Amino acid sequence: MPKKVLIISYYWPPAGGPGVQRWLKFVKYLPDFNVEPIVYIPENPNYPLLDESLLEEVSKDVTIIKQPINEPYKLAGLFSKKSSKAISKGIIPEQKKQSLTEKLLLFVRGNFFIPDARKGWVKPSVNFLSEYISKEHIETIITTGPPHSMHLIGLHLKTKLGVKWLADFRDPWTTIGYHKQLKLTSSSAKKHKALEKEVLNSADEIIVTSFTTKSEFEAITNKPVHVITNGYDYEPLEEFTMDSKFSLAHIGSLLSKRNPEVLWRVLRDLRNESDGFAKDFQLNLIGAVSEDVLRSMNRYGLDNCIKNIGYVSHQKAIKHQKQSQLLLLIEIDSDETKCIIPGKLFEYMVSNRPIIALGPKDSDVEAIIKETNTGNYFYYNSYSSLKSVILEHYKAFKNNELQVHAIGLQKYSRKALTKSLSNLI
């Protein structure tokens, strides 16, 4: 008889974005390992991105239970719909460019909604789930964050019912990049730290997506910390034609600080130095892009080679990945982002296109790209090497020889990763 496990998540289809993919795929494959997933989600969430196509991937056999949630972002939208939606996506302008409204919203978000704006869902969820868990004889629960208020639901259920609790951190809590931008008072910062420590020391097992986060958490707790990265799934292959241009595609959000001016400078110089490159090159942006980043690109004269497509469904994003000549991955250049492994990296790796990645030194992304031979990783000061590699790729493109020779990808398949999860359950 399959073992029942209750998964508590804020994000679920039709929500879009990478945060949805992780548990959508785990739920898809858990029954193959004799685990019956039951998914608990909000009934009326305020998702910043929608992708209706993901609903098709939810099995009709999966039990999904819902409860209403009160969302403060809806109220914030009365003051500034644009600012509240951008902040909910994690797109935070540079401090010197923030409006008074944006500063106020960030202060309120960081200090009045601890750990996050979904904290109001904790108490009603605990009340509802306590009865449901007892009635359905569920022995194991999993919470996934962010939002990290989901872990507070797990904390209370663990204390009240003594169930086995696995806390899954798709991103860190207090060390994630945007945490410093929330204008926290010293008291609020201490509350965040205290809640993080309590969760880490109360859960039976901790799951993280990177080895850097594992090291960080092991300094806070003696509880077992397991790395289960994000991964790739076997997507049905639509017919597509490779871009005729020498295209460099970025899939996903480009936040204000994901702005490697060294890359824009390299592209400007290559276009200035070669009429052929200037004619052939195209920069495809698929996803939300910060105005700060667009202005930076324009300062380097790239505006006439940019194709700004905007947010698309996951299926269309996969198609863009496969038909682009090169794939671009950018992370903020800071110590806090060394642990961030974007979910799109794994889909990039199986797109059979070379990856150009930029980020901080000694990051987990750098290690994975080197391990799998799927591209090149550069730092924000790597002008010469970055220019040289892009030029090499361009020559290979002109000779119809642009390809990648990936190795060791199987362990990052969603099914292989779900097997590791089932062993913990």
From TrEMBL:
CDD domains: GT4_WbuB-like
InterPro entries: Glyco_trans_4-like_N
Pfam family, one: Glyco_transf_4
Domain Glycosyltransferase subfamily 4-like N-terminal: 107-234
The protein, known as: Glycosyltransferase family 4 protein
